[in-house]
Specification:
2 domains; 3 helices; elongated
Length: 86
Amino acid sequence: MEVDAEAASEALGVFRRMDEVLGIVFFENEKKEVEVPAEVKALLDARAEARKAKNWTESDRLRDEIAALGWAVKDSRDGQSVEKKG
């Protein structure tokens, strides 16, 4: 059975979308690390200090400022992480 390039490309697109939605790692080696800008790193450091001091208002303000720059902050037991939105 021969598959044409268009059908193969369409199938690959379906698998990529499944990876995005379900978190199934089909394309792990294709994901590229995105450099976090110095400004965002500084805000993350300030936010970590605010959280350490239990200053939740400042922590939320900093998270919103980071979000306005196009980055999403995720908190976990191991601390915070950030990823580029979109």
